[in-house]
Amino acid sequence: MTRSAVLVRDVHKSFGDVEVLKGIDLAVPQGSTTCLLGPSGSGKSTLLRCMAFLEETTSGTIEINGQPLGFAETGDGRRTRLPAGDIRKVRSRIGMVFQQFNLWPHMTALGNVTEALVTVRGMKRKEANAKGEAQLARVGLGDRGHHYPSELSGGQQQRVAIARALALEPDILLFDEPTSSLDPELTGEVLNVMRELAGGGMTMVVVTHEIGFAASVGDKIVFLDQGKLLLDGPPSEIFGAPRHPRLQQFLETYLDRGAATLV
Amino acid sequence: MSMRLFELMLWAAGNTILLSAISILIGFVIGLMVCAAKVSANPFLRIPGTLYVSLFRGVPLLVQLLLIYNLLPAVGIMVPSVVAAVIGLSLCTAAYQAENLRGGFQSVPRGLLEAADMVGMSPWKQLVRIRAPIAFRLTLPALVNEAILILKASSLVSVVGVIELTRMAQNLSASSFRPLLFYSVAGAMYLVICWAVAGGGSIAERMLRTGSRA
Amino acid sequence: MTLDFGLIVQNLPEILAAFWMTIWIWIVSNILAVAFGFAVATLRRYGPGWLGLLLRLFVEVIRGTPFLVQLFLLYFGGPFIGLSLDPIPAGLLGMTVYATAYYSEIFRAGYNAVPVGHVEAAECVGLTRGQIIRRILVPEMTMLVLPQCVNMAILMMKETAILSIITVPELTLVVGAIGSQQYAFVEAMFLLALFYWFLVEVSGFLGRIAEARLSKFRFAHS
User: Fold this and answer.
1) How far does the signal peptide extend, from start to end residue (chain A) (predicted)?
2) What does the DSSP assignment read for A93-118?
3) Do C165 and B75 touch (CB under 8 A)?
């Protein structure tokens, strides 16, 4: 049995008095694509952000490739915060793609992709540029390196964001609703890149509303509802009959988008 | 500082408030007219309106005040210095308020006017019922800001001899040789007035927002 | 009343010196104030809490009181606490302190206007806090705040006229004095007004050009 790429154990997360995650356990196998589904407010984005350490869990542990992320258990059931250097090291195995792309507007596409190679990894500018060009080519934007984000379409921007994450050669890529702020006709190009990555054996965790993508590409579907993990299994099992009533209800809200016919 | 001197300072602060309030009001009326002229399709209105805004915003207020204070008697108009001061402050703030109003009117979403059009409102009705109320709400923060600017700028009328807060502090400093004390007290009074206006402004904004939700 | 341009020609050297004084104080105080203003905004954001509170108080007090009162306090009150300054250094110092407060507010808003996601993206690829400030926040903020900085610099150009009240020999003081001597104060002031107007319009024009050149960095996404 292979080690889990991400292992989430009994994670709780509260914002003030509101408990958003109520004890999540989840294992993401290496080389698999895991899709997190759920109605808005179910906690799926928060869970993903916890995996990227953009949010700190209130309790519980998350392991990346067997290494604790952010906090380590001390044995007596309590936990301590790890030194910043350790956090940075574990985090460097993770790449993140955001809903709003979050490209830095004052840098070209190539500049966005190579920034961390130069400033974090200490790579030579020339070497970084070569690598950046290669990553841009990989997402089909080899000719767009010198464009600024404002000169690119939404789909192109999101592909640059994916190239930026790929350039650091992460073991795990996290996607937070990568197509939700795109016009419908632009989602295809982004989903295709993701499909290719999945085919190439990249470990991915994807928060998405693209049910069709989840069903066809996902190795594992996780359905969250009200901060709890309700379902966890292969798509055939999750989407096949008999469906869980909450999932059925969730899918029906997508009926008008034709999603139900896709699964 | 004796009670008597403190009362003098308070009285002068009252003058500052009065002077500023009158100037803001007159400036609002002139500003509305300048704004209307500036957005007019008629070049005989638009060009003077644009020039007015550019000139009064491009020249230091102190220079404007000195000019008006000395120009009026030169052309045979004898008015007390306080009137010259109010004229100067009003003309200046009018240029800024005209720009604020223009921004407010332009920020009214097109769709709201199209909706008014579709329910059959006349252009005049649209202006009175839709455009103006929304534009005023959008302009309110800028108006409060302008009021605070004028309160502070009114200190400049001390140079033409109007006894307001700054001039009073100047006179009392000169006669008592205690500039630290009197200018600090004057500064504190300006601070209190400005904070009060800012606080009042945010209360008004909140009330208007509640009104819009209803 | 006639406009007497001879007035300018006769006193050209004095007027030029005064013009230089205005420009010099304006530029030096604004450069210093941009640097200090940035430092104030950065310390308020990243410094210890007590310092942030203190700086906030400084900014509120400066922004809540007239520049003239601040100048009087510095120039006339200073000697009582051992700070005797000549008009020019007092004017330069007063102007710098005053402008620092305003610029710091621009930078504070600039910091806040950079979308949180841009910082998160930088964290995710492993940039340190220092690198995030230097490489992401500052350049992004610069293009966001440039228009306001240009506006502020123009406002400050007009504020330099107030320095005449504490007898800094800048344009307003010198032109006013020449006008009084020649019994042509109104004409002199009128020419002065036109001159300031010209200066402000030219600065605004140059500022807009600078902005246009940076426009391709504008936000790709709201």
Assistant:
1) none
2) TEEEE-TT----TTS-HHHHHHHHHH
3) no
Q: What is the residue type of C134?
A: R
Cβ-contact B152, B194 below 8 angstroms: yes
**Residue C89 pLDDT > 60:** yes
Residue C51, pLDDT > 90, answer: yes
Give the per-residue pLDDT at C3: 55
Nearest CA in chain C to B198: C64
CATH for the B15-166 domain, from 3.40.50.12280, 1.10.3720.10, 3.40.50.300, 3.20.20.140: 1.10.3720.10
- What is the rounded average pLDDT of the residues C153-171? 92
Picking from C65, C165, C189, the nearest residue to B67 by CB comes out as C189
ipTM: 0.89
Sort out which chain C residues have CB atoms less than 8 A from A177's CB and list them.
Answer: none
Contacts with B158 from chain C: Cβ below 8 Å: 68
Assess whether pLDDT exceeds 90 at residue B1.
no
B176 in reach of chain C (CB within 8 A): no
A147 touches chain C (CB under 8 A): no
Q: What is the pLDDT of residues B35-44, one digit of tens each?
A: 999 988 888 9
Beta bridge partners of A80: A72
Average pLDDT over residues A197-214: 91
pLDDT value of residue A106 = 79
Which positions 102-131 of C are in contact with A (Cβ < 8 Å)?
Answer: 115, 117-118, 120-127, 131
Residue B92 makes CB contacts below 8 A (sequence gap 6+) with B27, B56, B61, B64, B153
Contacts B57 to C, Cβ<8 Å:
200
Q: What angle do CA A129, A133, A137 make, to 5 degrees?
A: 170
Chain C residue numbers touching B85 (CB-CB < 8 A): none
Cα→Cα distances A132→A46, A158, C24, Å: 30, 15, 46
Which one is predicted more confidently, B110 or A175?
A: A175
- With 70 as the cut, is the pLDDT of residue C219 above it? no
Interface check for C220 against chain A (CB to CB < 8 A): the answer is yes
Domain ranges of chain A: 98-169
Separation in Å, CA of C217 to nearest CA in chain A: 5
**Which pLDDT band, with edges at 50, 70 and 90, does C4 fall under?**
low
Q: Which residue of C has its CA nearest to A181?
A: C221
Question: Is the backbone of residue C186 left (phi > 0), alpha (psi -120 to 50) or beta?
Answer: alpha
